[in-house]
C-alpha cells in the first residue's frame, strides 16, 4: 500500500517538475498605457520556440509587444498528441485573447474545430491547408524566392560544379525551397549538379552534419542548410554555406554567404491592423511572407561580400529587385526533388 | 571509390562514438540488474551541461568533465529511485528522461534566453596521428573522444570480467540474494554501476554538443539513447559485441547517407530505414540466444 502511494506520488511529482521545467519564464507584464486598448494575443506552438519555424512567429509577436501594440503570452512544446485542442480551448475560455497565432501543422483539424466554437477570436495559423470561414487565416514560410537567390549564389560559387542541400522531410514547405534553390543554381550554371539528402527529422543536427559531410565526400563545395548542422560541416571543411529561416551568418561568419530569411512581422502587423479596425476576415496571408511585402528576404553577405565575385553579386541583386518588383516569378514547385539533379 | 570507402569508415567511427559511449554505460547499469531508461535524458543533460560549462570556461575538456558529473548525478537519482526505494525501473527511468529533457531546455532559456540562431562555440578539433599519410591519415582523423570511446571497450571488458568490482556487478545483476549472502553490498554495487553508467552517458551527450557540433539544440540526442538500449540487447550484454553493434549501426547509417546521393532510383526512405532494418535483422539472428541478466528489472529488498 505504502509502496503504491509512494509510486504515484513520485510519478505526479516528476510530471509536475517536467511541466514546470517546460514553462518558459514569462516576460513581466508592462504597465498599462493610455490610448487605444491593446490587443491580447496568444501564441500556441507545437514545438519549443527554439525550433526555427515557430521561432520566427514568436519573435515577430515579441516585436509587436515591444512596440506596445499587443499584450502577448504563449505556450510552446504543445506537441502533436492531442493537447493542442485542450490548450486552445482553455486559452479561449479563460484568457479570451483577440488573436491566437500558432502553427497548425499536425494539428490542422483541432485548430479548426476550436476556431469554429470561438468565432470572435481571430485564429491565425501556419498551415499547409487553406483558410476556414469565418475566422481561420493561414500563413506559411514562402521563402522560395530568397532560396532561388541562394541557388544562384551557390551555382556561381561552386568550383567543383557540385552543390548540396540537406533537408528535413520532403514536405511541400521544404520541397519548394529546395526546388527553387536548384532552379537558381541551374540558371547561373546549367551544368551544376545538386545533391539532395533528407534526414527525416526536423531536429537532428548531428545527422544533418553527417549528411552534409557525405555530400562533401561526393564533391559538393557549397551547401544549403535547410536544417541545423550543415553549416558546421561546411565551415569545418572551409566551404561556402547558406542558411535558412533566419540570418545564420554568426554560426560561421567566414563561410555563411547568406540565408533565406523568413520574417513574420508584415503578417503580424497586417493582422493586428485588421482586427483593430474590425475588418478581420479569414484569408490566406501567403503574400505577406513573400519578398515583395518584406516577409522574405536575402540576408546580407556580411564579411563574405569582399570574397564574392562582383558580377555574381550584381546578377543576384538584379534578380532580387526584379522579384520584389514583380518582374520575375520564382516557380513554386512542391514535388519531391530528386536526390541528384 | 577510395574516397567513398575512406569517408564511409571515418563517418562510421564518428557516428558510432556517442552510441558506443552510451551503450557501454547502459551495459554497466543492466549488468547490475538496472534497466536505465533515463539514458536519453541523461545524454541530453550531459550535452547541455557540457556545452554550458565548455562555453563559459572556454575549456572544452572541463565541459566534458562537467557532462560526466551531470551524468553521475543523473545516475545517482536513478539509483535513489530504483535501488534505494525499489521503484519500478521503467517508471523511474522514463521519469528521469522527461525530467532532464525539460530541465535542460529550461536551463537553456535561463542561460541563453531565446536566441534565433543557436549559440555556437568552437568545437573540439580532430586528432590525426598519421597526418597526411594516404589512407591512414583521413581514416584516423577523429575526435579525441572517439579514440577514448573505442579504447574504453577493452577497459570495460577488463573491469567486468577481470576485476572483483566487475564480478560483483555481474553477481548482483544475476542473483542479488546470493551475492548478498556472499557478503557483497548489493546496494552499493548497484549505486556504483549506475554512477559509472551515468558518467558514460553524460560523456556521450557531450560528444554531440562539444565535438560533433559545437552547439546545443533542442533534439540534439534525437533518440540515440533508445538506440543504445537496443544495442545492449544486440550485443548480448557483452562489451565487445556491443562494439560490433555500434559499428554496424553507425556504418549502415553512414552508408545510407552516401547511397542517397548516388542517384539510385529508390525512395530515400528505403535508405533511411536501412540502419534500423539491419539492426532488427541482426537482432533477430544474433539475439535469439539473448541471455538477460537474471535480476534485470527486479528491485532488491533485504528480507
Overall description:
The complex is a heterodimer of chains A (341) and B (303). Mean pLDDT of chain A is 89; it is low at 23-33. Chain A is an alpha/beta fold and 341 residues long. Chain A has 2 domains: 39-139, Rossmann fold, CATH 3.40.50; 144-262 and 296-324, 3-Layer(aba) Sandwich (Rossmann fold). In chain A, helix 2 (52-66) links the parallel strand 1 and strand 2. The longest helix of chain A has 21 residues, at 2-22. Chain A has helices at 2-22, 52-66, 83-95, 108-117, 144-157, 172-188, 205-217, 230-236, 265-276, 310-324, and strands spanning 39-44, 70-75, 99-103, 122-126, 136-139, 162-167, 193-198, 222-225, 240-245, 256-262, 296-298. Chain A is built from 10 helices and 11 strands. In chain A, the strands form 2 sheets. A 6-stranded mixed beta sheet of chain A has the order 7-6-8-9-10-11, with helices on both faces. In chain A, strands 2-1-3-4-5 form a 5-stranded parallel beta sheet, with helices on both faces. Chain B is globular, with a radius of gyration of 20 Å. Chain B is 72% helix and 1% strand. The model of chain B has no long low-confidence stretch (mean pLDDT 92). A two-stranded antiparallel sheet of chain B has the order 1-2. The longest helix of chain B has 30 residues, at 2-31. Chain B has a single domain (14-124, 148-289), classed as ABC transporter involved in vitamin B12 uptake, BtuC (Orthogonal Bundle), CATH 1.10.3470. With 303 residues, chain B is mostly helical. In chain B, helix 3 (60-84) runs antiparallel to helix 4 (89-112). The relative contact order of chain B is 0.21. At the A-B interface, helix 1, helix 2, strand 7 and helix 7 of A face helix 1, helix 4, helix 9, helix 11 and helix 12 of B.
Amino acid at each position: 500500500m505504502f509502496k503504491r502511494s509512494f509510486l504515484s506520488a513520485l510519478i505526479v511529482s516528476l510530471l509536475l517538475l517536467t511541466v514546470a521545467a517546460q514553462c518558459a519564464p514569462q516576460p513581466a507584464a508592462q504597465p498599462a498605457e493610455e490610448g487605444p486598448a491593446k490587443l491580447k494575443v496568444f501564441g500556441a506552438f507545437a514545438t519549443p520556440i527554439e525550433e526555427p519555424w515557430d521561432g520566427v512567429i514568436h519573435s515577430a509577436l515579441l516585436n509587436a509587444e515591444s512596440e506596445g501594440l499587443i499584450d502577448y503570452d504563449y505556450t510552446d512544446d504543445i506537441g502533436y498528441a492531442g493537447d493542442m485542442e485542450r490548450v486552445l480551448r482553455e486559452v479561449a475560455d479563460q484568457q479570451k485573447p483577440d488573436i491566437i497565432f500558432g502553427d497548425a501543422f499536425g494539428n490542422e483539424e483541432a485548430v479548426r474545430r476550436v476556431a469554429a466554437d470561438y468565432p470572435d477570436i481571430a485564429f491565425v495559423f501556419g498551415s499547409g491547408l487553406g483558410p476556414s470561414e469565418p475566422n481561420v487565416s493561414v500563413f506559411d514560410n514562402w521563402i522560395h524566392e530568397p532560396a532561388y537567390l541562394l541557388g544562384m549564389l551557390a551555382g556561381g560559387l561552386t568550383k567543383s560544379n557540385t552543390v548540396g542541400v540537406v533537408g528535413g522531410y520532403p514536405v511541400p514547405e521544404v520541397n519548394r525551397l529546395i526546388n527553387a534553390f536548384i532552379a537558381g543554381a541551374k540558371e547561373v550554371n546549367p551544368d551544376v549538379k545538386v545533391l539532395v539528402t533528407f534526414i527525416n527529422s526536423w531536429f537532428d543536427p548531428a545527422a544533418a552534419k553527417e549528411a552534409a559531410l557525405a555530400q562533401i565526400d561526393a564533391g559538393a563545395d557549397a551547401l544549403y542548410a535547410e536544417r541545423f548542422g550543415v553549416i558546421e560541416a561546411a565551415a569545418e571543411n572551409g566551404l561556402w554555406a547558406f542558411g535558412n529561416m533566419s540570418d545564420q551568418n554568426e554560426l560561421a561568419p567566414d563561410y555563411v554567404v547568406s540565408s533565406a530569411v523568413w520574417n513574420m512581422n508584415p503578417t503580424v502587423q497586417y493582422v493586428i491592423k485588421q482586427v483593430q479596425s474590425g475588418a478581420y476576415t479569414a484569408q490566406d496571408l501567403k503574400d505577406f511572407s513573400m519578398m515583395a511585402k518584406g516577409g522574405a528576404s536575402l540576408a546580407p553577405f556580411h564579411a563574405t561580400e569582399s570574397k564574392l565575385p562582383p558580377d555574381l553579386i550584381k546578377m543576384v541583386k538584379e534578380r532580387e529587385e526584379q522579384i520584389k518588383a514583380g518582374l520575375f516569378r520564382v516557380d513554386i514547385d512542391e514535388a519531391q526533388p530528386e536526390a541528384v539533379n | 571509390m577510395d574516397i567513398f570507402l575512406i569517408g564511409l569508415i571515418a563517418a562510421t567511427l564518428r557516428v558510432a562514438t556517442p552510441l558506443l559511449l552510451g551503450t557501454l554505460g547502459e551495459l554497466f547499469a543492466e549488468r547490475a540488474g538496472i534497466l536505465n531508461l533515463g539514458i536519453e535524458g541523461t545524454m541530453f543533460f550531459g550535452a547541455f551541461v557540457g556545452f554550458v560549462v565548455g562555453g563559459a570556461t572556454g575549456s572544452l575538456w572541463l565541459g566534458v568533465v562537467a557532462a560526466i558529473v551531470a551524468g553521475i548525478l543523473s545516475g545517482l537519482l536513478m539509483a535513489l529511485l530504483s535501488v534505494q526505494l525499489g521503484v519500478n525501473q521503467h517508471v523511474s527511468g522514463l521519469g528521469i528522461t522527461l525530467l532532464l529533457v525539460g530541465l535542460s531546455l529550461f536551463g537553456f532559456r535561463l542561460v541563453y534566453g531565446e536566441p534565433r540562431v543557436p549559440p555556437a562555440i568552437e568545437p573540439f578539433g580532430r586528432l590525426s596521428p598519421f597526418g597526411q599519410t594516404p589512407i591512414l591519415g583521413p581514416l584516423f582523423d577523429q575526435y579525441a573522444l572517439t579514440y577514448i570511446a573505442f579504447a574504453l571497450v577493452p577497459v570495460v571488458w577488463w573491469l567486468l570480467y577481470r576485476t572483483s568490482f566487475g564480478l560483483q556487478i555481474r553477481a548482483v545483476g544475476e542473483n542479488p540474494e546470493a551475492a548478498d549472502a556472499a557478503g557483497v553490498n548489493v546496494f552499493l554495487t548497484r549505486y556504483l554501476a549506475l554512477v559509472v553508467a551515468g558518467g558514460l552517458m553524460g560523456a556521450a551527450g557531450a560528444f554531440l554538443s562539444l565535438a560533433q557540433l559545437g552547439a546545443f539544440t533542442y533534439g540534439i540526442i534525437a533518440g540515440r539513447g533508445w538506440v543504445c538500449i537496443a544495442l545492449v540487447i544486440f550485443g548480448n550484454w557483452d562489451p565487445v559485441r556491443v562494439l560490433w553493434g555500434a559499428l554496424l549501426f553507425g556504418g549502415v547509417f553512414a552508408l545510407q547517407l552516401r547511397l542517397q546521393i548516388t542517384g539510385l532510383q529508390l525512395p530515400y526512405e528505403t535508405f533511411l530505414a536501412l540502419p534500423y532494418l539491419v539492426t532488427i535483422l541482426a537482432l533477430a539472428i544474433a539475439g535469439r540466444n539473448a541471455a538477460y541478466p537474471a535480476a534485470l528489472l527486479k528491485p532488491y529488498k533485504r528480507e
